[in-house]
Amino acid sequence: MKKIFFAVLVLGQMLYGQNPVDKDSVSTKQLEVVVITANRGAALKREVPVAISKVSQKTISETKATAVYEIMNKVPGVLMVNLGNEQHSMAIRQPMTTNPYYLYLEDGLSIRPMGVFNHNALLEINQFNLQNIEVVRGPVSSLYGPEAVGGAVNLISLKPSLQPEMKFGIQADQWGYKRFQAAAGATFGKVGFHVAGLSSAQRDSWMTFSDYNKDNINARIDYNINSSTRLIGTLFYGEYYSDMSGSVNEADFYNRTYKSSTDFTYRKSDALRSKIAFEKDWNSNAQSSFTVFTRDNKLGQNPSYGIKWTQGQTTARGEINSNNFKSYGVLAQHNQKFDFLNGSFVVGGLFDNSPVDYNAYQVDLKANLNPGGQTVSSYEIIAERPDIKLVDYNAKIYNTAGFAQLNLRPVHNLIFTVGARYDNMSFDYNNNIDQSTGSKVYDQFTFKGGVNYNPWSFAGFYGNYSQGFAPPGLTSIFRTKSGTGGSTGVPAEFYYNLEPAEFDNYEAGGWFSFFQKKVAVEYSFYYMEGKNELLNVRQPDNSTDYRSAGETSHKGVEMAVNYWPSDQFKIRLGGTYAKHEFVDFKVSDNPTDPVQNLDGYEMPSAPNWVANSEVTYYPKWLPNLRAGVEWQMVSSWYQDQINTVKYEGYNVFNGRIGYQFKGLELYMNVMNFTDKLYAYNVTRGNTATATPSYTAAAPRTFVFGLQYRLQLNKKTNEK
């Protein structure tokens, strides 16, 4: 063991060029990054025992994304699936899914209350108001609560600038997309402010019936009462309306006939969020905060995914639904450092009262079939049927939580972390379909324990065990089961028996750098077991049967490599290998069904390999020019739950170039550089005659833009 230790030490000295030193004298380009999400407070990235990535403002600025997925997919281990017009699903240590296994945060506060998860929550985000993005992979339920299973995404907003500044920009592509964005901020004495807004529109795109509008505004005011006391107020308002073109059939996909089968489906959202935070620095070792917040969301849709059609039939069913909630809550937190073992802790609590109502009713449709009768050319509305209710409830959700985390440093390079949280989600409900009333409680204690060991300036290691917890969403609980309710003559049945999903995650990883810190590598290995995981069993008519039974396993490795061969080049490599399997999952009790259980099957929409890499060039011969090429790779995945058919996956290349002259920046992005025909997702039912549905990706797209920034010096009043 001593020989191995000595060999590693000598190798480190050769590659790194110095002896092991204090962490305070180390300045690696990646691991000295300060993050806040992992500990609910500032900490060095290499001193938290989790897989966490931070997307910098520089990366966000250079990406010039039209949608957040273009930024998120740069994070190793993340696949944010583009569903069109900024709609999305996610895959972080999970298959591509819309299930409530991710927590989306805005400045550390959840965008949605527990029990009202929406996989499209990030479409509300104002990309022009982002300082950076932090992504924690794996469960962080012990700090942030339920739904933080696959991971948490924390979008951190811009703060007021010290000097007065203003910036605005325009963006457009050849497919009818346009966006205008503007921001301004300044600090005068004790008061600072920042305002950012954008307005996006899509018209007559490559896909028929895919127009959308998005208008967002963010505002922030900081009042520095004194050097140690602050009041921070933020306000967000956003409106969104989109045609929902949905997926296309196989023949249309391969013929590049990007034709929506509907001209009536839509999604619309109005969102209002506000908060006031009081922050107090008692001394250099103690800080407290108290935040009061509100949310007011209205979401209405006639969803394309809600169309239920049995192959060969000339009729179908759709739905129109509305989901509205308001939230009133408080979040209190205290961070404390102490001398004993150089320790620190964070302790806090949350209370959130969120009244919610949801209703959905049936829409009768005509299905116009393609020749052969196996696929649908188009749907038409025959009648709206508000008399046939699919969901109709109102509830008062009460979320209460307490959390604590302790960090101890018994020796200089060794850090132990333990954390725990108790969550209680209770709700009183009125189910207006069966006229029942009642209450239900989901509560859970979650734990996390981890260790960091950084013995050398060029390498460090971590390990952790963490638990995840996710109660079923109310929209699943109160939906009528297929074949019951309405005009069926069968009394309505609901999913009252759905259980919370529970997860155990085991993880190890580390980092190292060499060649005078020109190369930085991060890696993580994980194994996660799921129990009572919420799974959607697709029925022959495209309806969904919800199950929360059985066991699943999720395991993989994630890696990121950053290489700076010179000041002119940066090379980024990132990716993951993962396998997601059913361990114990029964899909049928009917002895005549060909498949009884899925034990040992791979989960659908679960590619084994996902990678995103990029080469960026900053030429010395032409300062302020940047050019980059990005490669996105997603390997094949099973389209169905019974593992009969795979989609091949895809490789796609994107190019970006920009030039800045004083305050003016001109840029062009070329997305899907080679005009590759590919789909973001492909799914099909479990029957032998089921046909696939393709979520088609855009053809080659040229995005042009310009941005201007004006900054004034308050003393000289000069640019």
Automatic annotation (TrEMBL):
Domain of life of the organism encoding this protein: Bacteria
Annotated keywords: Cell outer membrane, Ion transport, Iron, Iron transport, Membrane, Receptor, TonB box, Transmembrane, Transmembrane beta strand, Transport
Main location: membrane
Record membrane topology: Multi-pass membrane protein
GO biological process: iron ion transport
Record's subcellular location: Cell outer membrane
GO CC entries: cell outer membrane
All residue ranges annotated as the TonB-dependent receptor-like beta-barrel domain in the record: 213-672
Residues in TonB-dependent receptor plug domain copies: 45-152
InterPro entries membership: Beta-barrel_TonB, Beta-barrel_TonB_sf, Plug_dom, Plug_dom_sf, TonB-dep_rcpt-like
PANTHER family referenced in this protein's UniProt entry, alphabetically: FERRICHROME IRON RECEPTOR-RELATED (PTHR32552), TONB-DEPENDENT OUTER MEMBRANE RECEPTOR (PTHR32552:SF81)
Family: Belongs to the TonB-dependent receptor family.
Entry protein name: Outer membrane receptor protein
Source organism of this protein record: Flavobacterium limnosediminis JC2902
